[in-house]
């Protein structure tokens, strides 16, 4: 798959992932139980898997790897882990603080992706 195809797939799956997270997180805050059912969880997990596969393809094309030769990719991976942990708390427990922090981290990951700098201001 070409670099541009992978990039567009990655961007599309990011948008879908964010929409699914905001929907599930918002309804979790309202106490909805249907968000824990397989028919809503499985598509979100499949999309996130496709997102990560596209990211790995981009790493291959760019010959840049987190924890090896790319500080900005390392920052994205660390941010991703924090986003997943906080997102899990937000959806499973309906915690507003975790939902808000996960969205802040999502914005940070996007900022790092655009600027290729791990820390704002450096």
UniProtKB/TrEMBL annotation:
- Keywords assigned by UniProt? Membrane, Transmembrane, Transmembrane helix
Q: Which residues cross the membrane?
A: 12-32, 44-63, 69-89, 96-114
Cellular component GO terms held in the UniProt record: plasma membrane
Q: Where is the signal peptide?
A: none
**InterPro entries with a match to the protein in the record:** SirB
Q: Which PANTHER family match?
A: PROTEIN YCHQ
Q: What is this protein called?
A: Uncharacterized membrane protein SirB2
The lineage is: Bacteria, Pseudomonadati, Pseudomonadota, Gammaproteobacteria, Oceanospirillales
């Amino acid at each position: 798959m070409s670099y541009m195809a992978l990039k567009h797939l990655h961007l599309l799956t990011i948008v879908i992932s964010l929409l699914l997270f905001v929907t599930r997180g918002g309804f979790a805050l309202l106490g909805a139980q249907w968000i824990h059912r397989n028919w809503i969880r499985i598509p979100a997990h499949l999309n996130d898997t496709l997102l990560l596969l596209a990211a790995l393809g981009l790493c291959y094309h760019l010959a840049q790897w987190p924890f090896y030769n790319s500080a900005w990719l390392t920052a994205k991976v660390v941010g991703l882990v924090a986003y997943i942990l906080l997102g899990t708390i937000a959806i499973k427990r309906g915690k507003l603080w975790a939902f808000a922090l996960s969205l802040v981290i999502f914005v940070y990951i996007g900022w790092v992706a655009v600027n290729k700098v791990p820390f704002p201001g450096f």
